[in-house]
Hints:
By secondary structure, this protein is of the alpha/beta class. It has helices spanning 16-26, 85-94; strands spanning 10-11, 31-41, 44-52, 55-64, 69-72, 97-101, 106-110, 114-115.
Amino acid sequence: DAGVHSKAWYAATCDRKMAEDALYRSNKDGSFLIRKSSGQDSRQPYTLVVFYNRRVYNIPIRFIESTRQYALGREKSGEERFDSVAEIVENHQRTSLVLIDSQNNTKDSTKLTHIVRVS
């Protein structure tokens, strides 16, 4: 268990569109939630959805089988790994998360500051 099910930021039944709509409605930088990934792939079980600068970022959360840990985005050397999804959230409530806009090739960063609930 990734430690997500009892958390306020976990939107269990939420799809990508519902998550994005909820974040656009919140319209606050640092708004976020975690949803199940669309693909239902065991190596990428969840997605961190973050609102920043009028944009929504969908960041895959990977499960690393060999270490039983979680990491954000594509695999990279020296990446941060966490023992649970909750640890990722707690870490990025304190330290900024780098947001990469692949369309415009820009980087931003924000902390996870506002939990968004999908109704």
